[in-house]
Write a structure and sequence with these properties.
This protein is an alpha+beta fold. 28% of the residues lie in helices and 25% in strands. Strands 1, 2, 3, 4, 5, 6, 7 and 8 form an eight-stranded mixed beta sheet that branches. Strand 3 and strand 4 form a beta hairpin.
């Protein structure tokens, strides 16, 4: 019997950036360079980033900015070979947990109007449309839909997160959906130092979500 695969969500560190870049380039038409993430980790006190690892390989990552009492999800992506396996949902829960721990009252994000899969996922976790940002995306001028949660500590959203977390806990560990051989580039040691604070979207599991 093969050993059980272990999915972990933890803070992103500098040593994770090569693996993050593999997913970044596979997920976005205008990827952020590695130095942008380095700067976020080293100098931006508002920024907090998480990675999801499976058997030590980075398979997803996401980030938030905590601005007063609002958590703004800034980026979110899952390796193409591991989409539709619940990894994105684990990561989204981690970002919400982190937002609550950092005393954010609500979480917000922008998502492409055309990214229906992402919108459905965010709605599943309590996000609701509140506005439009015209021509928000620089690569093609597409509008962004602004989505925001209710108060994160309200009983309704707390119950939703608890139920969805329990459903994920009952699922088997993820396996790749396609050739994921390039995740070898994302292998990291178990003792990578953490540079952000800890906490775990099939949305961006169809593509990356940059907000």
């Amino acid at each position: 019997m093969s050993p059980r695969r272990v999915l972990k969500v933890r803070p992103m560190g500098i040593g994770d950036l090569p693996g993050v870049q593999v997913i970044e380039r596979a997920s976005f038409s205008t990827p952020w360079p590695a130095h942008a993430y380095r700067q976020e980790l080293e100098t931006n006190r508002l920024a907090h980033y998480l990675v999801a690892t499976l058997d030590r390989a980075i398979v997803a990552y996401g980030g938030i900015w905590i601005m007063v009492d609002e958590a703004h999800i800034t980026t979110f992506a899952v390796h193409p070979g591991f989409r539709r396996r619940g990894i994105g949902e684990r990561l989204l829960i981690g970002l919400l947990d982190l937002s609550i721990a950092r005393m954010a009252r609500e979480a917000t994000l922008e998502v492409r109007l055309s990214n229906l899969a992402a919108r459905r996922l965010y709605e599943k976790y309590g996000f609701r449309p509140v506005g439009i940002r015209p021509r928000y995306y620089s690569d093609d001028g597409e509008d962004a839909l602004i989505m925001t949660t209710p108060e994160l500590t309200s009983p309704g959203i707390q119950e939703t997160i608890a139920e969805l977390r329990a459903a994920l806990d009952a699922r088997p560990a993820p396996s790749p959906t396609a050739d994921a051989s390039d995740i070898a580039d994302a292998m990291v040691p178990d003792d990578v130092p953490a540079d952000a604070d800890a906490a775990d979207a099939d949305a961006a599991e169809t593509s990356g979500a940059r907000t």
